[in-house]
Amino acid sequence: MPNTCPTLSFIHVIGMKWTVPIIEELYSSRDGMQFNDIQASLRSITARNLSKSLKILQDESMVEKRKSGAPEDQRIVYLLTRRGKDAEEVVKTIKRVGVSWYGLGRLCASTKCGTCRVFTGRITTALHNPQQ
To answer: Higher confidence at residue 13 or residue 105?
Structure first.
């Protein structure tokens, strides 16, 4: 396997559309989240895209899939690994810089990306049409 730049590799993963919202959701969940709960929280993600994104994050050792609960009531949950928690710190910094560069102030700073109307495309902002 050829050597790749670790910085560019990280930027590639963190820059995928659903990485930040998934990391934010899992970061706020102490005991992990089930697939359907993540999908419900993110609202506009399809099951296929969520499954694909979680698989990539697992391959990158950012998310762990684990059985949880008593044997008779086991469920599968997704949790952030140490790497995923480290990525959350980067996400906070990216959001802070994004707000200072592009505005939207409290809207962006106080909202998880997966539920934000700007992120999910439910409203149009000057970011999408900077000439106006």
So the answer is: 13
